[in-house]
Amino acid sequence: MAEPTNTPMPPSTPVPASTPRSASPVRPIPSLTPNATTATIPFWTLPDASKKKRQTVLHIGDPIKYNPDTYLEFSQAFDIIRPTVAERERTEFIKALKERRWGDFSAIFRPFWGTGGEMGRWDAELISLLPNSVKVFASAGAGFDWADTELLAEKGIIYCNSGLAAAEAVADFAIAMIISTFRHLPWCMGAATLSLFASGSPDASAKDANARKAFQTCHAQATAASHNPRGHVLGLVGFGNIGQQIAAKMGNAAFGMKIAYFDVVRKSPAVERELGAVFYDTLSALMAASDCVVLCTPASPDGNPLITAETLASLRPGTRFVNIARGSLVDEDALADAVESGLVSAAALDVHADEPRVHPRLVKLASLEVENPGRVMLTCHNAGGTVETHIGFEELSMRNILAVLGGKDAITPVNLHLLRPQVVRSLT
């Protein structure tokens, strides 16, 4: 599933004191993790010895837009080749790799989601054609389900994403969606805007009457279905940067929610203590304990959904559900069943299994045309989409390449644990 054209650097949110900090040399940037008013990321420059033989970076996609100073240093350190749009189409891209049109390049740089993906999925067909000189693939975006990071690791290539850059934006969007599930905002907004479609139509009078009735009904009845988030249990599926940011924001004095989480790796006692988070060792246990479940975890490696009819059965009737992770994680028919039955009282989805198509049953449940209207909030994969996120995607991708080709540790590696030890040693 392709990443939409939207979606660095989030402003500050507090981060636990135990969160690892970057080593110098550094340039200060806005905070990327929950709890610090400032945070830093290493900005590695190449040592003089390595500049004697300039390495080549393959830049796929549009030119950079937001970080000219960093790009100046980047372009002074490397020879940069940017294939044309035509060369990035899959057939021509494969042909170029086979004929070694761009030589023995050392890195792949994709600073935007809107461009640079014309060749499609990075699978065995593409990866097998990469020269052995490639050490790092640094890309915009948090998700990496479009690239086989295991195959990249087998070829000795570190894949670096830019999820840190989007964390604040996604967490903020998630908060809006959480509040929506407690306050039924789609219903309230939809009923208030019906009158816009009444004037000027042949049956304007009847439509105006329906609009006024919808407004009055929502005003009278939404109260009985709405609740304050305070005191309710927020269950986070995934407790990485985004999950911790959501916890820091929703568990604070402003919203006062109780934080619970499930993750494949339990966080340190210091992180749990700082964020007031309770760990559950199974997904079903977390879902059974939660008043609102938020998906903020990477896509499953096997592509199978994590949220199915079976896992939804663990919920208590009336639980709320939010997905700002990946649409492929959810069996959308099962979710629609759960909303229709009342097992899920309200849902909010920013991502969808078949983007740009949205599941028709969920679209209907988001409308005012059903018995219990506006129970689903739907958006267009917008959670990470801010100018600040784009700035950070660009910056962080360049920093990762500077780090790896400079013999330093990658800043945001995804597949480092899959690389053979001898490959890791050769990169350091």
From TrEMBL:
Domain D-isomer specific 2-hydroxyacid dehydrogenase catalytic: 122-415
One Gene Ontology CC term in the entry: cytosol
Domain of life: Eukaryota
Pfam families for this protein: 2-Hacid_dh, 2-Hacid_dh_C
Record domain D-isomer specific 2-hydroxyacid dehydrogenase NAD-binding: where: 219-381
Coiled coil residues, start to end: none
Family matches, as InterPro entries: D-isomer_2-hydroxyacid_DH (IPR050223), D-isomer_2_OHA_DH_cat_dom (IPR006139), D-isomer_DH_CS (IPR029753), D-isomer_DH_NAD-bd (IPR006140), NAD(P)-bd_dom_sf (IPR036291)
Similarity field: Belongs to the D-isomer specific 2-hydroxyacid dehydrogenase family.
Descriptive protein name: Uncharacterized protein
Organism whose genome encodes this protein: Cladorrhinum samala
